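Recap from last week: sequence in, structure out.
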Amino acid sequence: MIQLSLNDVACSGCIGKIKRKIKRYNGIEKVRILAGSGRIEIDYNEAIIETEEINSTIHKLVIRTFD
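Predicted structure tokens:
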């Protein structure tokens, strides 16, 4: 499990979009938004996906959300 900060994403709707999209990736098991904290918690299978890949994916999703 990792927790990532989404401080650049203020809108709960945008955070919801990111949550729905990240859940589609292979190896992601569960995604929770930590309400009021600007953070997202991700349970994942380390044998399938690495932390660096999750961080990169989240960064890309944040950028796409605001394009």
